[in-house]
């Protein structure tokens, strides 16, 4: 990836000729030990606009798509160059690459896209969402460190904070109701609490966090704010609202195909660079490396993420309103009776709706399973599967699946009811065609003695 023709376009780097490793006597790039190119946030009040203004990489021979750099290691033309790269004097910001566990040009391009979308200086893409979360927490905390986190989190994140980090790293977590700002404030211990961690929209209860206020509370006590934005890409931009770091499971909406496991850390350049430090970097040393071929596929999907999110949200809003009219207990931030409906409206990027997830409370696991059975096997509305952001609707009973790492008391405190069905609304087929399939299953399940009008 060589020089840019303009701010927005760049050609993939041609092989450097012998003696042309890119520096001259009086132009030595005596680095600031900064190995990662950083972007000035390119906000135009719309993440799609920011994506469109990000640098576009062409292929090695002028292809409109960049080339896949499927190489584990990279050559240099002069032996002295390698020493300087390992010393931090030359790096990816000048198109010098060492090894793909460190930086890879194709993965770096995806990172630029993620940084543009989230409005951060830099981003690094990882092998999974959990590797992104764990690496950030390990970089920002150390032994005897303290984290304050929402009590309503994805089960894997909850298990990491509850079991693994205390045992392996002596990092403890205080869980709080993220909507109780006084409790959050009291739990953050100035000088000891390193991270306030929460999800922009909680998994699975769809509680919306007040990102500006929570960021203010944390920053008042010199604590970093890390937000998992997996449920709301394009809809919410946590960094623009005050958060320091945004993490993603790219496997979900950003991928959209249900075929890739990937993650991302988006944040300040200094933090992302520190995570790639050869001696102390959590990403560099733990090695959750993204494959270049995966990065290429994902980079081709991000440009239409905005269109997909609008349709996910449009259908989720429509189905939530119709199901509510039928008497089902529906949780969806787009409904006016949702506790954080107005909050989300005040924070959300315009035109992307209220997200593609909704929940239905069937009151018991048995009835939840019955509904999903009807929806998949009788009406073909969707699929019984974990994950989200797929073009088909995916359904799961969260208490016995994606939140099963939590015990009954923890689930009760988090508001995860036994009969809660989480639906990630897809966009395949026409809206009315899919609604007729949903309605057919709901009609079979509906018992007027079991459901109260909302």
TrEMBL record:
GO cellular component: cytoplasm
Keyword Metal-binding set for record: no
Record protein name field: Methionine gamma-lyase-like
GO molecular function, one term: carbon-sulfur lyase activity
UniProt modified residues of type N6-(pyridoxal phosphate)lysine: 252
Keywords annotated in UniProt: Pyridoxal phosphate
GO biological process, one term: methionine metabolic process
SUPFAM superfamilies (UniProt xref): PLP-dependent transferases (SSF53383)
Keyword Metal-binding applies: no
InterPro entries xrefs: Cys/Met-Metab_PyrdxlP-dep_enz (IPR000277), PyrdxlP-dep_Trfase (IPR015424), PyrdxlP-dep_Trfase_major (IPR015421), PyrdxlP-dep_Trfase_small (IPR015422)
Listed cofactors: pyridoxal 5'-phosphate
Organism placement in taxonomy: Eukaryota, Viridiplantae, Streptophyta, Embryophyta, Tracheophyta
Coiled coil: none
Similarity comment text for this entry: Belongs to the trans-sulfuration enzymes family.
Domain of life: Eukaryota
Organism name: Durio zibethinus (Durian)
């Amino acid at each position: 990836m060589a020089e840019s023709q303009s701010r927005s376009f760049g050609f993939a780097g041609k092989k450097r000729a012998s003696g042309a490793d890119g520096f001259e006597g009086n132009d030595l790039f005596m680095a600031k030990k900064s190995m990662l190119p950083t972007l000035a946030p390119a906000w135009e009040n719309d993440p799609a606009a920011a994506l469109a203004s990000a640098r576009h990489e062409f292929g090695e021979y002028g292809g409109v798509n960049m080339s896949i750099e499927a190489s584990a290691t990279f050559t240099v033309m002069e032996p002295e160059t390698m020493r300087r790269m390992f010393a931090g004097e030359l790096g990816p910001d000048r198109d010098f690459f060492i090894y793909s566990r460190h930086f890879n040009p194709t993965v770096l391009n995806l990172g630029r896209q993620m940084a543009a979308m989230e409005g951060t200086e830099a981003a690094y893409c990882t092998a999974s969402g959990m590797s992104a979360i764990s690496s950030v927490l390990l970089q920002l905390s150390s032994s005897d460190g303290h984290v304050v986190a929402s009590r309503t989190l994805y089960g894997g994140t909850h298990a990491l904070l509850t079991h693994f980090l205390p045992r392996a790293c002596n990092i403890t977590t205080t869980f709080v109701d993220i909507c109780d700002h006084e409790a959050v404030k009291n739990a953050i211990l100035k000088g000891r609490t390193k991270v306030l961690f929460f999800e922009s929209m909680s998994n699975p209860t769809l509680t919306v966090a007040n990102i500006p206020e929570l960021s203010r509370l944390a920053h008042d006590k010199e604590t970093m704010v890390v937000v998992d934005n997996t449920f709301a890409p394009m809809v919410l931009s946590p960094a623009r609202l005050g958060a320091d770091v945004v993490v993603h499971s790219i496997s979900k909406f950003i991928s959209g195909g249900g075929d890739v496991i990937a993650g991302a850390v988006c944040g300040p350049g200094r933090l992302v660079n520190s995570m790639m430090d050869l001696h102390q970097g959590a990403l560099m040393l733990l090695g959750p490396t993204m494959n270049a071929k995966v990065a290429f596929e994902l980079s081709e999907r991000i440009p239409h993420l905005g269109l997909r999110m609008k349709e996910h949200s449009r259908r989720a809003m429509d189905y939530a309103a119709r199901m509510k009219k039928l008497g089902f207990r529906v949780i969806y931030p787009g409904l006016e009776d949702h506790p954080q409906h107005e909050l989300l409206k005040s924070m959300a990027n315009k035109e992307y709706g209220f997200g593609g997830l909704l929940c239905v409370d069937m009151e018991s696991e048995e009835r939840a399973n019955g509904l999903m059975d009807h929806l998949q096997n009788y009406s073909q509305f969707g699929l019984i599967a974990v994950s989200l952001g797929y073009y088909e609707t995916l359904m799961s009973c969260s208490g016995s699946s994606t939140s099963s790492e939590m015990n009954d008391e923890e689930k009760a405190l988090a508001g995860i009811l036994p009969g809660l069905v989480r639906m990630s609304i897809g966009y395949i087929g026409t809206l009315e065609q899919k609604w007729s399939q949903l309605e057919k299953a709901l009609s079979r399940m509906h018992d007027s003695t079991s459901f109260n009008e909302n």
